[in-house]
Amino acid sequence: MRIDIVTIFPEFFGVLDISLLGKARAAGLIEVGVHDLREHTHDRHRTVDDTPYGGGAGMVMKPEPWGEALDGIVGSEASDALLVVPSPAGEPFTQAIARELAEEDHLVFACGRYEGIDQRVVDHYATRMRVRLISLGDYVLNGGEVAVMAMIEAAGRLVPGVVGNPESLVEESHEDGLLEYPSYTKPAEWRGFEVPPVLLSGNHGAIAAWRREQQLERTKRVRPELLP
Ligand code: ADE
User: Fold this and answer.
1) Where are the domains of the chain?
2) 139: left (phi over 0), alpha (psi -120 to 50) or beta
3) Is the ipTM of this complex over 0.95?
4) What pTM value is reported for the model?
5) Does residue 52 sit in helix, strand or coil?
6) Which family, according to the similarity comment (predicted)?
7) CB of 83 sitting under 6 A from ligand 1
């Protein structure tokens, strides 16, 4: 998989060098390009934003640097890449979307700042490639960078080979639509708290039933809207 990120804060994505995704990059499973939007400005102040037409607070990102930066990545004709624009006005990001992103060959992320990117950037690229506006959740971040980091981490770990033991992906929260069951490791007792005895029983049927019960109880208590 190839990932390109356009941002005014390229340093932000230095964390992609470490941890699981860093290993995936080193192993050649995921290739990442980080592009500084300001490289595509042509004025002394490297301006990327301007006041909104129609008035109002805040600044809007100008379309020209975006056009130049994105054309540099996807070319100036039709592209098979998927352009992802993080936005609080987008569809909510879910594990199902992470799975869809993980199947793409080429993802391009456009990190907006300020009050967003001039709408014509999305409208223009939507004429020659797939474009998705995706929200990390119902709250406002200062820009798309944190949202993109979360999407890359969630999708990247689903790319075959990135997570060493693929079975560990199966029993996670949200994979079966429920929250995951609580986990325990040694010692069997810690600060007066004991590991639930069923987990020490060796009875795999009873353990599976207990875990399922825990998933349902947790989901009902914390996220009832996830239950069918
Ligand atoms: N940019 C600002 N807020 C955001 C959010 N909630 N999700 C995605 N991108 C954003």
Assistant:
1) 2-164, 171-226
2) beta
3) yes
4) 0.94
5) coil
6) Belongs to the RNA methyltransferase TrmD family.
7) no
**What DSSP character marks residue 51?**
P
What pLDDT, in 10s, does the model give residues 50-84?
A: 999 999 999 999 999 999 999 999 999 999 999 99
What is the rounded CA–CA span in Å between residue 69 and residue 52?
A: 21
- Atom 5, ligand 1: residue with shortest CA distance: 88
CATH topology identical between 2-164 and 171-226: no
Q: Is the CB of 150 under 6 A from ligand 1?
A: no
User: Is the distance from the beta carbon of residue 89 to the nearest atom of ligand 1 less than 6 Å?
Assistant: no
Work out the number of other CB atoms within 10 angstroms of the CB of residue 6: 26
Q: Are 104 and 131 in contact (CB under 8 A)?
A: no
Which CATH code is given to the segment(s) 171-226?
A: 1.10.1270.20
In 3D space, the residue among 11, 1, 13, 17 whose CA is nearest the CA of residue 147 turns out to be 13
- Dig out the tokens for 180 from the structure: 């995951």
pLDDT tens across 173-221, in order? 787 899 999 999 999 999 999 999 999 999 999 999 999 999 999 999 9
Q: Is 14 annotated as a binding residue?
A: no
Cβ of 136 below 6 Å from ligand 1: yes
**Sign for the pseudo-dihedral over CA of 7, 8, 10, 15:** negative
Report the 10 Å Cβ neighbour count for 123: 11
Residue with CA nearest ligand 1 atom 6: 88
Specify the pairing of strand 193-194 against strand 130-135. Answer: unpaired
d(CA 134, CA 151): 9
